Amino acid sequence: MDLPNIQSDLAGVTERDVDAVFTGTATFTTHGQVILTATSGVFTPNSRVTASITELDANGVPFIGAARLTIHNVSPFQGGVRVWANIEWGSNLRVRVSFFWEN
Length: 103
Hints:
By secondary structure, the chain is mostly beta strands. The protein is built from no helices and nine strands.
């Protein structure tokens, strides 16, 4: 399957505890079925990553709107992570993907 690849830098990387659990977010403006790529040197192919997605309002505040947002696959690589997302809306929406990972 050949899906559009939308890219963003990972922001807000924080270490949560001594077990090296990290969090970060990336913001995208897109719709449809896409690959969302967040880049950061903290990721390796062996990183254990989970992701969630939410719609953002004009002020960057998360909310539950009428669009259905889903994450289907998460794939870390050296220097980033890709997620296959489906943003079921007829025009671009601003969304935030939150990542949680261990290296």
